[in-house]
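explain this.
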Amino acid sequence: MHISDHNCTYLSAIIQFYNFCTYFWASLRAIEAFCLRRRTRWDRDPREAGAGVGDVLHGDCGEMSGMQSCLRWISRFACLLLLHVSFAQQTSYRITPLRPVPELRAEALKARPPHESGSFRKPDLVELTTLDPTIKLDIRYATTNNFLHTPVYTQARAFLQRPAAEALVRANRELKPYGYGLIIHDGYRPWYVTKIFWDATPNDKKIFVANPAKGSVHNRGCAVDLSLYDLKTGEEVTMPSGYDEMTRRAYADYPGGTAAERARRALLRRAMEKQGFTVNPTEWWHFDYKDWKQYPILNVKFEDLGK
């Protein structure tokens, strides 16, 4: 195959640009690593996480020389940029359903949740955006942008039992000084949707979906799927995996991804745990509220809530 001089020049330019980008990214990663080593306070308390502009741009340089001090300021500022200039994937992880979703939906709507014995609290599902309009919604199950690539909700709404919803609002409030807000992908989930997910998912991926025979914490209105968004841009940030990704990258303790992604994941987890939530070990985005066992499994559609 003959390659013209023009094409050779073009190809050479592409290679040079690639090499430049690789070098530039490696340099940023080195600065980021230095920054994270210096800012050990991130490992203690989200209020001292240092992700806020005020904390990053203020501090005592102590006995550091002028050059060391300058490097410290630059590394901190670079780390702040790396934390904030990184947006999440827009397309969800996808599988091939074992059977057509419309067929599964018809069966699930006819089925009944498992019987439960004992006493439970009276459900009090609250729409999250009515408590705090700064909480953003990206309800992918109401769109084709989800792991089944077809809508399973008829409305893009998010609900939680009132105590869990109020705790979520507090977590959202505490994240604001660091330049972040909460973005919700799912909250209360009717039981029939859990059955659709289970019946559609291949056996080797069922670790990532709840068994309808037992019900889900989502069905009780005490589980939430969420991430962080940048308050300045309004964009969701990147984490070590995408939402609903059915791989090891989704694990809450997955050691991969960039240092900035892991720092954001840790910040989210600390903020949520402080308010009584516990992360799902296989899904960094999934948090269960502490009182979930006190609520029954529900199977009420979104459009029927409040009736």
Residues 5-38 form the longest helix (34 residues). The longest strand covers residues 223-230.
